[in-house]
Write a structure and sequence with these properties.
With 384 residues, the chain is of the alpha/beta class. It is built from 14 helices and 19 strands. It folds into two domains: 163 residues, Rossmann fold (3-Layer(aba) Sandwich), CATH 3.40.50.1950; 208 residues, 3-Layer(aba) Sandwich (Rossmann fold). The chain is elongated. The structure holds flavin mononucleotide.
């Protein structure tokens, strides 16, 4: 996702930068470790190169001027002073002068060093220059002293990094509710009525909304893929679960119902397993709550409601248009489930975005790209 220069300087907390490197790589970022000679006394540069999956003898200079973010964690009093005064005597401090994007500093030092007038003045200089800080926290130092000076925990630094990497846009800070997957309606204690939805489309939408800075809740009905990092996942295996959890969050700024909740469920599910025998078994199905319709009837001013229409052929688009009006939605995403190459349980999709004034076809593409096109449309609607 982003290219991050990770400066590591000479404090005991350098070992915690190993965990930070791992978390950043797991988050999908390209990490370029810049380890000072002071830090090498604590953790070898090779360790960071291995964790960042980079060649040990790589020439880092070509990366220095093309990074999205510079992070210094831990940042010693010494490096803090160099950053404040523009001293460039090692690869990290050189990079800091060459770098033009945001910088995040996680100081780590003895509480008396942190409280010293020289350090206070350096922090003030860096603050005035727009440098971001995370920590230091209060706690026990490695040498046993108590006070403010402990480096922020890697997970806390990761949150600060994610915030800095979010591009400003209409979805930033908005609550986006997304549903994904297909519900399973019990017939007895082991059997169910289900559908082929894998949840890929909804999961791609949740990931894209998170990438755009939204606070995302994902209602996950038996999804077959991993759920994205940084998203609040609520498991909703049945349509009743999904309805309850969706209605509890019906005040979200944007609601995208991408799941395939069952339209019908067994009227009376057995609580035990029906033994196998030679007689036929007739199961009566009853309609489930129409989640999209209920959300549409409750839709408040300014809220954007998106529904999906899994239908077939030319007349499918017409039915999607009727659905837009009937369900009080702002956007219906039509996907043709009669095709084998897109839609249900497929990595690709091709959709028609049906809004009050227009119809727009988004050509076949991976679901991540389709998700981006859908959220572009949501942003247009949010803009009015
Ligand atoms: C065992 C030990 C632990 C240290 N821990 C810190 C620390 O937590 N914070 C700090 O500012 N300096 C600490 N220092 C001092 C720095 O290592 C020293 O200032 C060094 O020059 C920093 O270089 P750098 O900022 O280029 O990495 C420590 C020194 C030693 C020997």
């Amino acid at each position: 996702m982003a290219r991050i220069l990770l400066g590591v300087t000479g404090g005991i907390a350098a070992y915690k930068a190993c965990e930070l490197t791992r978390l950043l790589v797991k988050d999908g970022h390209e990490v370029v470790p810049l380890v000072t000679p002071g830090a090498e006394r604590f953790v070898r540069a090779e360790t960071f190169h291995a964790l960042a999956r980079r060649p040990p003898a790589e020439d880092v200079y070509p990366h220095l001027t093309r990074a999205d973010l510079l992070v210094v964690a831990p940042c010693t009093a010494n490096t803090l002073a160099k950053l404040a005064h523009g001293i460039a005597d090692n690869v990290l401090t050189e990079a800091a002068l060459a770098h033009r994007g945001p910088t995040l500093v996680a100081p780590a030092m003895n509480p008396r060093m942190w409280a010293h007038a020289a350090t206070r003045a350096n922090v003030e200089t860096l603050n005035a220059r727009g440098i971001h800080f995370v920590g230091p926290d209060e706690g026990e130092m490695a040498e046993g002293e108590w006070g403010v000076g402990r480096m922020a925990e890697p997970a806390e630094i990761l949150v600060a990094i994610r915030e800095l990497l979010i591009p400003p846009g209409p979805l930033r800070g908005k609550h986006v509710l997304v549903s994904a997957g297909g519900t399973r309606e019990p017939i007895d204690s082991v059997r169910y009525v289900g559908n082929r939805s894998s949840g890929r489309m909804g999961v791609a939408l949740a990931a894209e909304a998170r990438r755009r800075g939204a606070n995302v809740t994902l209602l996950a009905a038996n999804v077959a893929v991993d759920t994205p990092e940084g998203v609040d996942v609520v498991l909703t295996p049945t349509s009743e679960d999904m309805a309850r959890e969706a209605f509890a969050r019906s005040d979200a700024d944007v609601v995208v119902m991408a799941a395939a909740p069952a339209d019908y469920r067994p009227a009376a599910a057995r609580t035990d397993k029906r033994p196998k025998d030679t007689s036929t078994w007739t199961v009566e199905l009853e309609p489930t709550t129409d989640i999209l319709l209920t959300l549409g009837e409750q839709r408040r001013d300014g809220q954007v409601l998106v529904g999906f229409a899994a239908d077939a052929g030319e007349t499918g688009v017409e039915r999607a248009r009727a659905k837009l009006v009937r369900k009080h939605a702002n956007l219906i995403v039509f996907n043709d489930v009669s095709r084998d190459d897109v839609g249900f349980d497929n990595p690709d999709n091709e959709v028609v975005l049906v809004t009050a004034g227009a119809e727009r076809t988004v050509a076949r593409a991976p679901k991540a790209e389709i998700a981006a096109a859908i959220l572009d449309e949501v942003e247009r609607i949010l803009h009015g």
